[in-house]
């Protein structure tokens, strides 16, 4: 077991970065984003290493049109909306789900999609719509809910799906080429499901290093060190430094359940447009559980509120504090954009842990 302390890893990182050209690495996991801010790791990086937050918050990348569709369905009679808490306050053009609830809509926070299935069974007079937002980490639960609803013969349960796949988004950012990315710190949770080989196209087609890491300061620092070493050696590859959780073949059982219920589909990402085969849609035999089909609702055009930089933040083009609304008009209590709402949103993390703009490093203190 590697027992290096964070302060030793910081020294190692500064040593391996000596005499190297500037490098920019992107983390594509909201948990990494929050952990970097909370621990203060960013403030300890060498001057030639830049860390960029990418589209790692599933709430934040859901398009404005999706939020509007959810609100439209919520306003219909005899409808119960079930959602994770983060989605309540994401503003749409005509309000949020929280505002719909305030004027009488039945909108409930659940902790599992199976809670929504049980609610549908208990209230056959209502149609229960689960707001299915998430990356591969949570999609297995969504698939299990559909299978459970089918087994129980529930015709009053459906999903409003906005599920995203991480790797197509990584490839889209590289193909656009507007943001310099020298390598990726890959998400630990998602990688538990999809396994390391899912990142092969990133390395093969774009020659970018990929390192899968956990969320403790030691893991994140080791991940950055390995990315720097790969850049220095000009040897891009996939490294898994989180083997306790991420196995070589991922989680085949979870992948099988997901593939049984869903199939890849084109999907709209906030500010990134439609990315081919970057989402998951219900297969034809489960289409009766599709809320869009059931209510004949369409996902409308994407939209960012005037002055809001969430779209650029999600793509790593600007930092949260570059947004003119950050911390003034837009705060976690009065969010204008989704990045200030989601618990894994870059703006929310910067607001909560960034203080006056200098990330706190107390978590890495050795007490001396």
Structure commentary:
The protein is an alpha/beta fold and 368 residues long. It has 15 helices and eleven strands. The chain has helices at 6-16, 30-39, 58-61, 64-74, 97-102, 113-122, 136-151, 166-176, 188-194, 200-206, 217-233, 252-261, 291-295, 310-314, 346-353, and strands at 23-27, 49-53, 79-83, 106-109, 127-134, 157-163, 183-186, 210-212, 238-240, 262-269, 273-282. Strands 2-1-7-8-9 form a five-stranded parallel β-sheet, sandwiched between helices. A four-stranded parallel β-sheet has the order 4-3-5-6, with helices on both faces. Strands 10-11 form a two-stranded antiparallel sheet. The radius of gyration is 21 Å and the shape is globular.
In short:
This protein is α/β, with parallel strands linked by helices and 368 residues long. The chain contains 15 helices and eleven strands.
State the strand order across the main sheet: 2-1-7-8-9
Distance N to C terminus: 25 Å
Task: Give helix and strand order, one letter per element, not per position.
Answer: HEHEHHEHEHEHEHEHHEHEHEEHHH
Largest sheet: 5 strands, parallel
**Unreliable spans:** 355-368
**CATH architecture assignment name of the largest domain:** 3-Layer(aba) Sandwich
The CATH topology of the largest domain = Rossmann fold
**SSE class:** alpha/beta
Q: What helical percentage do the residues reach?
A: 25-40%
CATH class of the largest domain: Alpha Beta
| Annotated CATH homologous superfamily of the largest domain | HypD, alpha/beta domain 2
Cα shape:
globular
* Mean pLDDT value: 92
Percent of sequence in beta strands: 15-25%
| Number of E strands | 11
- Which value, in Å, is the CA radius of gyration? 21 Å
Count of structural domains: 2
Total of helices? 15
